Amino acid sequence: MPLISVIVPVYNAEKTIKRCVDSIRRQTFSDVEILLIEDGAKDASGALCDSFAGEDARIRVLHKKNAGVSAARNSGMDMAQGIYLQFVDSDDYLPEDYLERLMQTQKKYGEDAFVWSGFGVVDGTDETMTEIIRYNEAETAECSRKDLFRFSGRYLLNSPWNKLFHRDIIKRNHLRMEEGLNIAEDLQFNMQYLDACGDVPVVICNTVQYRYVRTGQESLDNCYRAGYYDIHKRILTEQYRYAEKWRVPGEDYDLFYKRYWEYMQSALANLKIAGDRLSHAEIQKEKKKILCDIFFQESLKRKKGSMGRAGYYAMRSRFVWLYDLYERRSEG
């Protein structure tokens, strides 16, 4: 039985999959299996995966019909034999000592600890690291799930790939990534896992960085996302309920409302690029839902001192026509 199962969903990744797999094969910690879940790719990704498996006995490949990244990860979890699970996206890669350092931390803090890393944001065009995301400046941060909003505020909770999961916890609690969800599904899964863990140490290795490659596909600037508001409303409401259950300190709720505000601004921006996907009436209805959202209004109250009076009262009124008037004047 390998100690770590590394799960890599693969879809149309012929340009990046070799770098990704090579980075896993070169790990100084070698007690791993590498699971390549080829999700109905239309390029040469599947053939490349098979060639890697022919070169390294630690690699297993599953070819399946395209069903999305969550379904691919679920298939990987079903196949996995390791004690721990590490997710890696096919665009991304790992420093050579990444798994070794996570396992050293796991051993130091005990098998119950939930070990994370920071991550470096890599420009997909020239492969330069443009940003390093960490919890704080300490070499290792000792936290708990009570730091929920602090994790979110630093973008450390949103993804599965900077974390070492216990397969047994996932199996015993029947945890799955929601396959019908294509926004915030990772955040939801991570919160469910934290809940299943109980009040265990969350240990973040700030000096170890997963390499997250920004390809440009993450942007909503020119891509309308159906259901953006409803999905984020549901997931963030779940987060709020977990915060109450885990007794997150009251002063940290400012971080929740700050993040909620940002998501709702993105939801409003998303409606501007809906094009012919929504009728005018449907767009106005979505705006009304956002403006009347209880969490949005609380976020707005906390923004009062840092925004213009016109914008504040237009949103506070909950009248879509007044908000639209404010928007037109702001843009004109």
**Global Rg:** 21 Å
The number of distinct β-strands equals 9
Strand fraction:
15-25%
> Main sheet?
9 strands, mixed
* Total domain count: 2
Number of helices: 13
Classify the helix fraction into a percent range. Answer: 40-55%
Give the CATH topology of the largest domain. Spore Coat Polysaccharide Biosynthesis Protein SpsA, Chain A
* Overall pLDDT score: 95
Low-confidence stretches: none
* C-alpha end-to-end distance: 64 Å
Helix/strand order: EHEHEHEHEEEHEHHEHHHHHH
CATH class of the largest domain: Alpha Beta
Shape type: globular
Describe what this molecule looks like in 3D.
With 332 residues, the chain is α/β, with parallel strands linked by helices. It folds into 2 domains: 4-214, Spore Coat Polysaccharide Biosynthesis Protein SpsA, Chain A; 228-331, no CATH class. It has 13 helices and 9 strands. It has helices at residues 17-25, 45-55, 69-79, 98-109, 148-153, 167-172, 185-197, 228-246, 253-272, 280-291, 294-303, 309-317, 320-331; strands at residues 4-10, 32-39, 59-64, 84-87, 114-123, 129-133, 140-143, 163-166, 202-214. Strands 1, 2, 3, 4, 5, 6, 7, 8 and 9 form a 9-stranded mixed sheet that branches. Strand 2, helix 2 and strand 3 form a beta-alpha-beta unit. Helix 8 packs antiparallel against helix 9 (253-272), helix 9 runs antiparallel to helix 10 and helix 9 crosses helix 11 (294-303). The longest helix is centred in the C-terminal third of the chain and has 20 residues, at 253-272. The radius of gyration is 21 Å and the shape is globular. The mean pLDDT is 95.
